[in-house]
Amino acid sequence: MNKTIAINIEEPPPLSLYVHFPWCTKKCPYCDFNSHQLSDRTLPESQYLTALLADFSSSVELIKGRTIASIFFGGGTPSLISGVGIQKIISEIYRQVSVDKNAEITLEANPGVSEILQLKRFREAGVNRLSVGVQSFSDANLKRLGRIHTGKDALKAIEKANDIFDNVNIDIMYGLPEQSLENLSEDISILVRTNVKHCSVYQLTIEPQTLFYRHRPDTPDDESCWAMEKLIKEMMALYGYDQYEISAYAKNGFESVHNNNYWKFGDYLGIGAGAHSKISFGNRVIRMEKAKSPQTYMNKAGDGNALAGCYQVPHHDLPGEFMMNALRLKDGFKLDLFSQRTGLDLDYVMPSIQKAKDNNLVIVKKNSLRPTDYGYAFLNSLIGYFI
Ligand SMILES: C[S@@+](CC[C@H](N)C(=O)[O-])C[C@H]1O[C@@H](n2cnc3c(N)ncnc32)[C@H](O)[C@@H]1O
Ligand code: SF4
Question: What percent of the chain has pLDDT above 90?
């Protein structure tokens, strides 16, 4: 798959905006996100907002004439920012670019940092979806994960969020240190009773550069995690949550616009420390990364120098990158989407699709392709056919 080949992306894909906020009250021992513990330091909110706005203004040229379909404030813990701060960013975005009138605007909140007044201000500023990082409702699990909140705090935060927002997501993790199937079943029973519209369920991964990597906790073996995954699928389905992506479950009509755009290989502009962007032009796809260290970012963004790296995705990498995202979707994708997003002819991947089909990993029907249950269970091997 490595001969030189021209690409032609006729229509730019839908566009999302990601805004990164790189601080947390406390760093969790499993987390490798670009997030830094505040400790006794005060939050440099106004300095960071100035940098974000400068970063945005100097990036706007890249998305000229396009409309933003979703905005995501991620972190770190963006719920540490004041309502006024979020309002300032959102109004500046609307002032400088076109935003879809039904745009999904999500903000990530930690249950330990989600005061009711604060949540109301976020809503007034235009945020219409809140994503609460719960992880577990069990105090023992939360303690082992080094979280700053209890199960009760999490329930209170969800209640407040449900009062203020029509669209609430919660993040749950499984495969936790010393977790049993019964313990997970308890978490999922509580989760389904909260009546949130969306839930992201992640298996704990032990990432290099984390405290858990250096002091590895005792986590359930593969067979137990497999049983946990099965239990999650069954219980979520029973309570009307449809699994539409490997880790995402939603009530009908509440699939995340922002995440779906990533999985359908859409475009996104990232602003903030370490934020990534993917932007398509007619004959090339560009990836960019902003300066990762918050201090360096704040020092450089003011002069329009926040960019730390930029490269064109080699054409022969596009099929693998597309499939790595699109095959995560339970219902797969329309075959046309491959050419629309990569600018490559479908013939380019037909031999690999045929091989995956022969091995019962995908089904091709009515111009759509989706992984079989077997393909979904061995997704990494399936993706390997396209790399
Ligand atoms: C940026 S954090 C969410 C918001 C907020 N910082 C919080 O933790 O409450 C995104 C989510 O990624 C998940 N996550 C982080 N590290 C993980 C890991 N090592 N394995 C699995 N999931 C992880 C957690 O569920 C977390 O809520
Ligand atoms: S609060 Fe969230 S972003 Fe911050 S360290 Fe913990 S998991 Fe990572």
Answer: 95
